[in-house]
């Protein structure tokens, strides 16, 4: 295959993955029935740029550009917590956990976006809104199911799940399988080491 689906993202710490696993287990027990497609905790990441189809022959150029851009940015800390929904609780489509980060995260994301645009990847039109996707409501969910989802989410509380230091950004391959996506880390670009 000469084309892969790819994206650029930040991985989380083992402790955060453990916490997200518990949050997901709690939500799944309150919302059985399959009208939310939950993301396995190990697949959750903070996406900086979804590239879509990438030619394997351009992968080296992409990863060099990524390393060049990422190495200009300092290490920073991210906090994870608080449950949220896009676009709203009354019309839930995406269930997520929030990310609190210093301005360095937005600067890093903007730099990666600009570097990928320079290489021909269309810039994202929506403003960057850092979050960790837990699940997506299925398209054929009935109004009753959507009402149930809204009710459960409005009563569910997720507090502070932890913090971690961002030291690197990863280039991932995404393979769509019947059981869900499989992500393979193909390259790691390190942020500038603390001086």
Strand content: 35-45%
Radius of gyration over all CA atoms, rounded: 17 Å
The spatial strand order of the largest sheet comes to 2-6-5-4-7
Q: Largest sheet, described in full?
A: 5 strands, antiparallel
User: Helix/strand-derived class?
Assistant: alpha+beta
Helix count equals: 4
Provide a descriptive summary of the structure in words.
The chain is an alpha+beta fold and 195 residues long. 30% of the residues lie in helices and 39% in strands. The chain contains four helices and nine strands. The protein has helices at residues 14-30, 59-70, 103-118, 143-155; strands at 3-10, 36-38, 46-55, 76-87, 92-100, 131-137, 160-166, 168-177, 180-190. It has a five-stranded antiparallel beta sheet, with helices on one face. A four-stranded antiparallel beta sheet has the order 3-1-8-9. Strand 8 (168-177) and strand 9 (180-190) form a beta hairpin. Helix 2 (59-70) runs antiparallel to helix 3. The protein is globular, with a radius of gyration of 17 Å. The termini are far apart.
Brief digest:
This protein has 195 residues and is of the alpha+beta class.
Relevant terms:
single chain, 195 residues, alpha+beta, 5-stranded antiparallel sheet, 4 helices
How are the SSEs placed, and which strands pair?
Elements lengths: L2 E8 L3 H17 L5 E3 L7 E10 L3 H12 L5 E12 L4 E9 L2 H16 L12 E7 L5 H13 L4 E7 L1 E10 L2 E11 L5
Helix pairs in contact: 2-3
């Amino acid at each position: 295959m000469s084309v892969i689906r790819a994206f650029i993202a930040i991985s989380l710490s083992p402790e955060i993955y453990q916490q997200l696993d518990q949050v997901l287990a709690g939500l799944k027990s309150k919302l059985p029935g399959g009208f939310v497609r939950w993301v396995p905790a190990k697949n959750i990441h903070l996406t900086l740029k979804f590239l879509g189809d990438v030619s394997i022959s351009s992968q080296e150029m992409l990863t060099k550009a990524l390393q060049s851009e990422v190495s200009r940015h300092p290490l920073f800390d991210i906090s994870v917590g608080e449950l949220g929904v896009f676009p709203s609780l009354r019309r839930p489509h995406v269930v997520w956990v929030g990310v609190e980060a210093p301005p360095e995260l937005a600067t890093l994301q903007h730099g990666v976006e600009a570097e990928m645009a320079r290489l021909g990847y269309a810039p994202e039109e929506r403003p960057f809104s850092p979050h960790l996707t837990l699940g997506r409501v299925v398209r054929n969910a009935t109004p009753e199911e959507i009402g149930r989802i809204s009710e459960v989410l409005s009563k569910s509380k997720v507090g502070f799940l932890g913090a971690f230091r961002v030291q690197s950004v990863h280039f991932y391959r995404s393979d769509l399988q019947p059981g869900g996506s499989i992500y393979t880390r193909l390259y790691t670009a390190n942020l500038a080491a603390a001086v």
